[in-house]
Amino acid sequence: MKYISFILLLLSLAGCDSSTTPPFDYEKTYMLDYVKDGDTISFNDIGTIRLSAIDTPEVYSGNRMNHQADECSNGDTSIIKEMGEQSSKFVKSFVKKGESYIVLSYGEDIYSRTLGQIFLKNGKSLNLKIVEEGYALPYIFSEDINSTKVFNALEQAKKNKRGLWLNYKDEMECIEKLDQR
Fold first, then answer.
1. CATH number of the domain to which 46 belongs
2. Cα 125 from Cα 172, distance rounded (Å)
3. Into how many domains does the chain fold?
4. pLDDT tens across 87-121, in order?
5. Distance between CA 70 and CA 74 in Å, rounded?
6. Would you say 65 and 73 are in contact if contact means Cβ atoms under 8 Å apart?
7. Which helix (H) or strand (E) holds 106?
8. If you ran DSSP here, which 8-state letter would residue 49 be given?
9. How are beta strands 114-119 and 100-108 bridged, if at all?
10. What's the rounded Cα separation, in Å, for the pair 99 and 83?
11. Rg of the chain taking only CA atoms, in angstroms
């Protein structure tokens, strides 16, 4: 019962509707397998989770990276890739393979990926932490996370030149505009 109360507290802090039924168990933690990139993490028991409400620069070549590069770095994919690698490295500094985390699911996105929020051992949302520290942008397309907190975190990261905002301000602003389209 104590654990269920803790989960309900986390949901309220995250701005989630506690009546939403996820596809997996609130009372269980899940073991991390690997970090694919800054906004995608794989778990042993439940598969790949696309972190909801955030977007990080691309690490892997493809249409999205090419589009970000064409629009935001004069076609130089190496800049976008470096930004994505820095985001991935930041995430890997907070979560470790073989450790367990609480994962809240919000269903699937338009690409059939499971959307979710991951909570660190201290109860803080990893999704929000990545934005706070300047390694992700808000990508709000549903009511799966408290968008006010995410946008406030973004403004603080910009203002304090955290993470990618220190050396890639122009590129981050450009990607932010692309994500709003």
1. 2.40.50.90
2. 22
3. 1
4. 999 999 999 999 999 998 888 888 888 889 999 98
5. 5
6. no
7. strand 100-108
8. E
9. antiparallel
10. 26
11. 16
